[in-house]
Each structure stands twice: as structure tokens, then as C-alpha cells.
């Protein structure tokens, strides 16, 4: 059961990351982390995964929806 709860939290975080990028028109991993009150490494992991899936693009240190 705890794995399911983790999956739900992860899904919630992913959508929060996408929404943060949408609201800001793009952001750094640090800005996303600060906005969502998560660690920078957590934000970076989500952003990197979204980038691999072509949902976001990275330009320099900024990410935006792809």
C-alpha cells in the first residue's frame, strides 16, 4: 500500500512541476524547487525525466514546456 501512496505523491509532484513551468513561462530547477518547497535534487530529477519524455526542454539552466 505504501508504494501506491508514493506513486500518488510522485504524480502530484510531476503535475505541480509542469504547472510551475507553465505559470512562470519556464524556470530553473532551483526556482521550481523553491516554488514547490521540494529539494533541488528532487526538482532536477522530475525535470530531467520530463525532458527525456519530451514534455519539457532545457535552454541553458532553464526548463520550459516543450
CATH class: Mainly Alpha
- Helix and strand composition category: alpha+beta
Give the total of domains: 1
Total strand count, please? 3
Low-confidence stretches: none
Q: What does the model show?
A:
By secondary structure, this protein is α+β, with helices and mostly antiparallel strands. The chain has a single domain, classed as Arc Repressor Mutant, subunit A (Orthogonal Bundle), CATH 1.10.10. It is 67% helix and 15% strand. It has three helices and three strands. Strands 1-3-2 form a three-stranded antiparallel sheet. Helix 2 packs across helix 3. The N and C termini lie far apart (34 Å). The model has no long low-confidence stretch (mean pLDDT 92). This is Helix-turn-helix domain-containing protein. It comes from Halospeciosus flavus.
Which descriptors would you attach to this protein?
Arc Repressor Mutant, subunit A, 3 strands, 3 helices, alpha+beta, WH-like_DNA-bd_sf, ArsR-like_HTH, 3-stranded antiparallel β-sheet, Tscrpt_reg_IclR_N, 66 residues, Helix-turn-helix domain-containing protein, 67% helix
Amino acid at each position: 500500500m505504501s508504494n501506491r501512496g508514493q506513486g500518488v505523491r510522485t504524480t502530484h509532484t510531476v503535475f505541480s512541476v509542469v504547472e510551475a513551468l507553465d505559470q512562470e513561462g519556464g524556470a530553473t530547477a532551483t526556482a521550481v524547487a523553491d516554488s514547490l518547497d521540494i529539494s533541488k535534487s528532487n526538482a532536477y530529477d522530475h525535470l530531467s525525466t520530463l525532458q527525456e519524455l519530451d514534455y519539457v526542454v532545457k535552454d541553458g539552466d532553464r526548463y520550459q514546456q516543450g
